[in-house]
């Protein structure tokens, strides 16, 4: 499967570990945005140049467009502004969507489209479901 993982910028170290797990399971990550986190002189998006932000936005957009499965890690939605936008792209493109996070963190109305989402409390819960990454 081609997979895109979305989450808060500050969650990049954990997301990188999740990407490693998925790659070991022979999945392809369509865009590794965590590299930007580790390569940045500063982990503040506001300190990046306009050109860097444009490039990152394009890469993330195409990462979502080219995935089969979109995984959103929304454990703290207050820090996931970009990830919610990526979720909107995934919805518009008809992607299979898996959400990770407690119900109280699912504050976006579109999380409640039952035919579009599989929702799990934790990453481990998702991995235990052998059908989690299969299209609904």
Description of the molecule:
By secondary structure, the chain is α/β, with parallel strands linked by helices. The protein has one domain: 3-Layer(aba) Sandwich (Rossmann fold). It contains five helices and five strands. It has helices spanning 12-24, 34-39, 50-65, 81-92, 123-128; strands spanning 2-6, 28-29, 69-73, 96-100, 117-120. It has a five-stranded parallel β-sheet, sandwiched between helices. The two termini are 14 Å apart. The model has no long low-confidence stretch (mean pLDDT 85).
CATH class assignment: Alpha Beta
Domain module count: 1
Assign an overall shape.
Answer: globular
Which CATH architecture is right?
A: 3-Layer(aba) Sandwich
Give the averaged pLDDT, no decimals. 85
Task: Give a short account of the largest sheet.
Answer: 5 strands, parallel
Index terms:
single chain; 5-stranded parallel sheet; globular; alpha/beta; Rossmann fold; 136 residues
Quick structural overview:
With 136 residues, the chain is of the alpha/beta class. The chain is 39% helix and 15% strand. The chain has a single domain (2-128), classed as Rossmann fold.
SSE inventory with pairings:
Elements: E1 2-6, H1 12-24, E2 28-29, H2 34-39, H3 50-65, E3 69-73, H4 81-92, E4 96-100, E5 117-120, H5 123-128
Parallel strand pairs: 1-2, 1-3, 3-4, 4-5
Helix pairs in contact: 3-4
């Amino acid at each position: 499967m081609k997979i895109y993982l979305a989450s808060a910028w500050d969650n990049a170290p954990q997301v990188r570990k999740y990407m490693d797990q998925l790659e070991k399971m022979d999945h392809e990550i369509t865009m590794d945005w965590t590299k930007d986190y580790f390569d940045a002189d500063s982990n503040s998006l506001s300190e990046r140049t306009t050109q860097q932000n444009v490039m990152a936005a394009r890469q993330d957009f195409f990462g979502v467009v080219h995935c089969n499965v979109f995984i959103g890690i929304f454990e703290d939605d207050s820090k996931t502004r970009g990830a919610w936008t990526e979720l909107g792209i995934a919805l518009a493109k008809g992607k299979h969507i898996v959400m990770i996070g407690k119900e109280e963190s699912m504050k976006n109305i579109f999380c409640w489209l039952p035919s579009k989402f599989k929702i799990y409390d934790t990453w481990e819960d998702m991995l235990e479901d052998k059908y989690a990454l299969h299209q609904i």
